[in-house]
What does this fold into?
Amino acid sequence: MNKIIKNVRINGHLSAIVIEDGRIAGVGASVAAWPGAEIIDAKGLTALPGLVDVHVHFREPGLTEKETIRSGSAAAAAGGFTTVLAMPNVLPVVDQEGRLKEQLALNEEKGLVKVGQIAAITEDLTSNRLTKLAELKAIGAAAFSNDGHGIQEAQTMLTALTAVKKVNGLLTVHLEDNGLANGGVVDPKAGERLGLKGLTALSESTQLARDIELVRATQARYHVAHVSSKQSVDLIRQAKLAGLPITAEVSPHHLFLDESMVQADDPNYKMNPPLRSKEDRQALIAGLLDGTIDLIASDHAPHTADDKAGSMADCAFGIVGLETTFALVYEHFVASGLVDLETAVAWLNQKPIEAFGLQNAGQLRAGDPADLVLIDEKTTFTIDPKDFHSKGKNTPFAGQKVHGLVVTTFVNGEAVFSKD
It folds into this structure.
């Protein structure tokens, strides 16, 4: 059914949106009425383009006790995300053509939002045997990643970059030198305080320095996942000034938390890469503001309560983020007056679309898919894991009061989430 969303604010102005056959037919204060259309009165609400998250873990198949495509995509919709890209570290790993076809079909069947699929760079995520990148891209791989594992051999990374350049693909890279990481679980400063093994930021920045030289040699498109350190921000800035085809993302937990806030051996503060120093966090914010870092991605990593029980020494890495990302970004950047809403939304819509070359994500323009979200900017609410649609409840942000409440999310013009 065609729809007209009236009395809605867009970029600070009262406006209306006409939706026809799943696409936006018009946006503006003077859009024409549509006979027989469903009228949605959005008085007091703001319309945004559907948010895009290029880094999520949905765990299906193989790990459905943690999350399913249905529960993960429900979490995405509740957080205002209409397009997400899922990482390949499910069981079996998405590292072969048949598995990618099956995964894409599963995403389409069970996803409440648009669930794109990233395929592995190497077989099993940890080997040096390259996957068939050209064939995987032709089938529909949105990008390639071994997320959760750094590529240890420089020759393997060079071969991957050379191959991905040939097909104009994109590598989205988890940076971690295993020797330097040395089994660490938290930043070394937190480790000293809590009696836990430290994971140095050099594990990230040294692999990045290596890869920048390989990108310089190949000119392949390269995306840095979950940047966590000042050294990495500096390296990315230099690479961009040199004109290299590098983009980067940062996750909300690295923007809004640091190692000094880890006051106890609390598994909800364990993620990879770990929370770094206040100086690192400030460098990440500065890098986002000056464009060194292109976008924000949640790294939504749901786990069972048992997975996150006990000590950080041996529990699982990762926290959930799809249902908290927008509100945290709104609270810390927009409500604080640091940036305007349009800038914040660009980090969560325009920039990821551009970096990953996404073709089917709406940007709230006439002719685009009607992927959009209605938010309440005034209401304060408290982050409560009991309200999450995700199976994962693992978050360090529980109890925080925030603004930016998602009220309704539309995908192709159909409501996939409505706040009760």
